[in-house]
## 1
Amino acid sequence: MSNTNALSAKARIETLVDENSFVEIGAMITKRSTDFNMQEKSVPADGVITGYGLIQNNPVYIYSQDASAMNGTIGEMHAKKIAHVYELAMKTGVPVIGLIDCAGMRLQESTDALAGFGKIYKVKSDASGIVPQISAVFGNCGGGVAVLAAMSDFTFMEEKNAKLFVNSPNTLDGNYADKLDTASAKFQKTASTVDFVIEGEEEVLNSVRELITILPQNNNETGISDECMDDLNRVVDAFAAEAADPAVALADLGDNNFFLEEKAGYAKEMVTGFICLDGMTVGAVANRTAEFDENGKTVAKYDARLTTAGCEKAAAFVKKCDAFNIPVLTLTNVEGFATTVDEEITIAGAVAKLTNAFAEADVPKVNLITGNAYGSAYVAMNSKHIGADMVFALPDAKVGMMDADVAAKIMYADDKDADVAAKAAEFETQSGTEAAAARGYIDSVIAPESARKQLLFAFEMLFTKSEYPIGKKHGTI
């Protein structure tokens, strides 16, 4: 059950949408089942309120589960109402927002409830890549309902009272809730399903409103926020110092210092999120080597290497951006791949997914090399070699196979008389930005303080980009 201080299902909707804009549909629908004395139980609206409304004048479809009606469990008609909302959303090209507070499947309805779950899975799959899907978890979200949340494009979780789990903590081998509450927001923020963990129901709903305003309505539109009131030529004096922590650097680049980071607690070595440039929504993917606190002090450091979790996080984000025509910016600083036995099991497949995501995306793609760009790890990070439209580099950036000293030691490992230092210096000349620019691999070397202006103008010139890829059903990576 939900916390007694929580908003009701209807109050959540009213907080989410513009005042007096919500229109309920299917209010009279209720259960058909009479098994297990169900005929004696009142289930208003079959435990879910559905309808449509406006968020800052943007139309949305909404369903909000009512934990006061049989714990918000999903039965046959409950599922039918949610599926109907999705069907309408796909016809009209409007986002769907699900406010989740559900104890799972309604056991009294057995196979009818199971069929209802399948129906929701199907319509969510059909809608994927057509309209944005957002889930916000306020109470329980367990078992098959957790899968529903994971099928959304973006999932929010209230920090104190929400619980998200496939298997409850007490059923996990060797675990129990007091030892490690795997259903809690504290745990889930370090996992891959939840994009945003926020304390307070109203705060969650306000964050959903914010996200809706920067996303396109569907896959035929582009994301345009409000008119830009920021200086298009604004100088970013601290960008070079901030580049190690892209969460800080991207906020400095974006209009009015706006940066909405997703999955902030998961795979921290890879930063993903949204900024706006001259009012245009841009998806950002960046390698992180340091984490700064609010005072600019370094609180954590990371290797400049691609990890399995980081690659999969970035690949999924790029695919979402590409599906909804959101341009992609990368800030690249990578020297290779993670070097552990565990990573060796999975890293090749994860890098393949990342490479494919960038190569397959036909939205405008811009890369800014902020540090080192070495080897095939760099190639995978939105390099020109796999389809970036524009590649910029800071003056101190390096592009090449690997660190010059390491390369010289490898090349002359069998030559005892070789001057390894001299050979490293010779190799170094091939790794500077000038050598890469001379071959067209870098379009321009830019001053760090001019990064906002240069990136903004690049995306504006690419706004009308259009590609017609070879027809195929889908890729297999």
## 2
Amino acid sequence: MSAVTTARVPTAHASRYLQQLSKHWSHKLAVTFTPHEARIDFNPRAPAVVTMAAAADALTVRLETEDEALIERMTGVVAEHLDRFAFREAPLPFDWQRQG
């Protein structure tokens, strides 16, 4: 995979949001998660993988894809879904940083 972008999202509820989103997507996608880490594989729907790591003060979200054109769409999908679970503090501040 070639394109990588990461966002560190400040929130005291990172583990809760990680688990809620993982359970939500596990109905249609390949998902593995613990209370502190998650991996969501969007293949074959889209060539992308999202990983999340929960800390006490933030949720780190990493998106990796082979398709540069998918970056903007997929970061929007992730942010929109997380905002649904974080409705009390939404919109969450996503500051996506491209790597590489």
## 3
Amino acid sequence: MSDLNALLHSRSFVELGARQRAAALLDQGSLRELLDPFARVKSPWLEAQGIVAQADDGVVVAKGTIGGRPLVIAAIEGNFQGGSLGEVGGAKLAGALELAAEDNRNGIPTAAVLLLETGGVRLQEANLGLAAIAEVQAAIVELRQYQPVIGVVAGPVGCFGGMSIAAGLCSHLLVTREARLGLNGPQVIEQEAGLDEYDSRDRPFIWSLTGGEQRAACGLVDAYVADEVSVIRECLLHTLEQPGDTLPRSRQYARFLDLLEGYDAAPQADAASVRALYQGDQA
């Protein structure tokens, strides 16, 4: 292992950029990026709004191996437009998943890892972004029939909006302590429901409800891992080695609906009451 690769494997995963994260998780020297920045495939919609477009549209997609197993990996760059997904980035992500499904149909058992650092749809691209996210979701459902699709939410942007639904469709979901996962972000909830309902500046409260530890305790994710590249890579390898007969969480909707049916949403929710609800202890 090269000195650089050894450094990447021993350091914080959260501190790495999207391209570094993908390289650090794959076997050394196996990464082959698809539509890299030199392809200049970027959003045509941002410049007109005074926003400097990024050459890869904030999404890194690559093929490689992990533990010798064929893998497609996609990483969203949270530092570009809050990790929002637009037409180009969404097409890249969906296309990578579709390539993996095609590999499986051709006898190459290719799994997928999605590194989700995203606030959801890019508002500047509106319906185009929503359509792209819908394609991503459809591609996840298609691929998981063949091989696992593993989502990783590390932080600090978290995973929200339509991409949180994509995360919920993954075969397995891994989170760190720094991660957050929810349908609506804190500022959106505060804007629509008011400060008394949700104070977006109250970081301890936000993490107590949507943070990685809480989501793991509620059974909404499959693994709660330390923020270290080697730990996350080892967890991915272990997950890929498991039998593929586990029912995806999105197919367990009846159980979740039963849990939610009797919940009284009038009082302010807190971490303890939400955890009790999902653990089946709510009276």
## 4
Amino acid sequence: MAPMAHQAPLTHSVAFLARRAATALAAVAVLGAAAAPAAYADSASPGKLPDGLYGTNDPQFDGVWRQSLALLAQDTVGIRPAPSAVTWLAGQQCADGAFTAYRAEPGTPCDAKTRRDTNPTAAAVQALAALGGHGDAVHKAVTWLKSVQNDDGGWSSAPGSASDANSTSVVIGALTAAGEKPRSVTSKKGGKSPYDALLTFRLGCEEKAEGRGAFTFQLKGAAPNADATAAAATAALGKGFVVAPAGKNATAPVKPLSCEGDEDKKAGGDPVRAAEGGDGYLVAQLDKNGQHLLSAMPGAKKQPDVGNTADAVVALAAGGHGAAAAKPLAWLEKNAAGWAKQSGPAAYAQLVLAAHATGTDPRSFGGTDLVAALNATGPAPAAAAKKDAEDGGDSEGGGIGLPWIIGIGLAIGAGIGFLLSSRKKSGL
């Protein structure tokens, strides 16, 4: 299972990996074989954190992940990240294009013992593609991701292990960010696409009513998993971490998987309908629990899962369900600030992205300025976008040279592949 950080509180990133691993562990018990996904680090983290890194917790298991989300969230709201922060992320890449969770000595080349990981690789792709100026790094990372695609069309965190819904979802987001059409990225053996793999984790009409439409983490027939469902519902529409704002006035009704008509019974191969069914499951769970999801962490089943609730908001917004997303968003505005303060940059980034997806101002989020709070967890950002444009300046280091546009809750970073705001434009 995924390693746990040794200090409290956990960063959101580590908690995210642990949630997935807890579900996968049950699958391992059934199979007696396939290993649960893990967060891999190339080497032990140093006593002194490197310059440019966001957060103060041990980065050994989530350094690249939290850095990627932090930079992506800043870019999404028109903040130009510090060059040192971008340079740190780019410097974590191995020569073959892959990333691991964290490399304490990035100057040392990766070797056969370096445990490459699809999750931080896909997260870094989304961040570097959005920032611009890193085309070679993005291309190399995507090429590596394609090289470790499983025969079923999906991915595991650890190359060579069985595919899972979360890893497949984050790679779909990376492919879209890099300008690829996920459906055209097929396995060498079998010709399966990422969507073919993703839909194998979907629970359909053969399941009990309360689980229909949900996604499992890994095994068909395993329990519904809200974390996997939120990730898969977004990825099934060809989208990643950044979702164009649906807005609170987007009132498309959520259509749960009812299985009362032929449409639902025959929808097993339709990613868009699968996303809709996943959204229906999420709404049912949110309504049941008071507009938040519950933690899947062992021993904490009654504890609100703030991060997963933010993921659900993004998934609902991705499906055009702004009105449905507004309810859990309101819960986040009242309850998420303390969690984010304890958890660090990835948590603030998630809330920024949830606010962005709903057209909400992240600088006034339940009384918290999420952007300022995120900025405070790392090196001071470069000059604000508007000032930089007026000065006509290019970036210093980090390879950022694109113009920036300020638009709270509206701006989308240059070069990102999530400009597709409707299902017809999802690239499926």
